[in-house]
Amino acid sequence: MSANQMPLPAFAVFGNRHNDVDRAGGCAFLVEELSDLRVMIVEDQAILAMELELVLNDLGCDVIGSAMDQAGALAVADRERPALALVDVNLLDGVTGPLIAQRLVADYGTTVVFLTANPEQIPEGFAGALGAVCKPFDAQTIKAVVAFAEQFILHRTVGQPPRRFRLAPWLTTPPADLAPHSG
């Protein structure tokens, strides 16, 4: 693929092992089960964390743990090595989501997506995160974002972002020596 080609925006979207097509946010997504995607949830609102876990389980993802603060998140990550982390920015211990994202990316190679009601609290470089979704969000948005993240994890390619997903600026101009997930 040449440098100016973008991958086709057919990042697996969800169902249970059949090839339905979903129109999440105007993009076509191929449906497939994400059975071996290891996902961690970092969210201090217990009800929202449980709802996210239900959506992820419906997708066939392996939810490896949940945390409500930085210490809990890093303990889960150290023990479980997540491929993807859905991280709130403002947690029980303050605005520690960006610090968690930096550590997950640097120490474990985890792909991070911020989930936040306060997008202004996301640092300029997104702390290495793939992007952000503003709260409130629905299950379909989470499904599309997880599929988008899986495409990035598996192929290190980025196509058309799902609706309500704000792509991190480092992905639009990734200097080879500075991009957090290069290599």
Question: How does this structure look, described?
Answer:
With 183 residues, the protein is of the alpha/beta class. Helix content is 30%, strand content 18%. A six-stranded mixed β-sheet has the order 4-3-5-6-7-8, sandwiched between helices. The chain has a two-stranded antiparallel ribbon with strand order 1-2. Helix 1 (46-59) crosses helix 4 and helix 2 packs parallel to helix 3. The chain is globular. The model is unreliable at 1-32 (pLDDT under 50).
Defining key terms:
183 residues, alpha/beta, six-stranded mixed β-sheet, 4 helices, 30% helix, disordered N terminus
Question: What is the element layout, followed by pairings?
Answer:
Layout: E1 21-22, E2 29-30, E3 38-42, H1 46-59, E4 62-67, H2 70-80, E5 84-88, H3 97-108, E6 111-116, E7 131-134, H4 139-155, E8 165-167
Parallel strand pairs: 3-4, 3-5, 5-6, 6-7
Antiparallel strand pairs: 1-2, 7-8
Give the helix/strand class.
alpha/beta
Coarse morphology: globular
Compute the separation of the termini in Å.
Answer: 16 Å
Q: What is the count of helical runs?
A: 4
Radius of gyration: 15 Å
Task: Indicate the low-confidence ranges by residue numbers.
Answer: 1-32
Helix content: 25-40%
Q: Which H/E pattern describes the elements?
A: EEEHEHEHEEHE
The share of residues in extended strands comes to 15-25%
The count of DSSP E runs of length 2 or more, i.e. the number of strands, is 8
Sequence of strands across the biggest β-sheet: 4-3-5-6-7-8
- Overall mean pLDDT stands at 81
Major sheet attributes: 6 strands, mixed
